[in-house]
Amino acid sequence: MSHDLSRGPDALERFVTKIEEEQANIQEDLSVPAEMIMAPEDLKTYNEVTECWICKGPFLKPAAPEVVQKLKKAKHNLLEIKEWETYMVLSCQRLKPTEKL
């Protein structure tokens, strides 16, 4: 980082220009993903951790295929129920007040 000192009527404009240039440089640096470099013991710790060190909440583990299948089936059943409920609401709205299902 260089120290570019300026005085005079255009000092504020030069300052803002330098800040905007610095922001552009930072954005450019941050836009390129960097490779994570870890010592072997850090990698071992990283792979074994089970909770977030910030919020202390648990990490979700990848589900087994049979669990995923059960969740997909439950989702399908829920969607069928929602579709049936929507159909019933629309059917009831079409009925005249004196009619009943």
What is the typical, i.e. mean, pLDDT? 85
Strand elements, count: 0
The helical percent reads 55-70%
Tell me, what's the shape? flat
Radius of gyration: 30 Å
* SSE succession: HHH
**Secondary-structure content class:** mainly alpha
Summarize the model shown.
Helix content is 59%, strand content 0%. It is mostly helical and 101 residues long.
Keywords:
single chain; 101 residues; mainly alpha; 3 helices
Give an overview in words:
The chain is mainly α and 101 residues long. Helices cover 59% and strands 0% of the residues. It is built from three helices and no strands. The longest helix is centred in the C-terminal third of the chain and has 30 residues, at 65-94. The model has no long low-confidence stretch (mean pLDDT 85).
Question: Strands, helices and their partners?
Answer:
Layout: H1 11-31, H2 40-48, H3 65-94
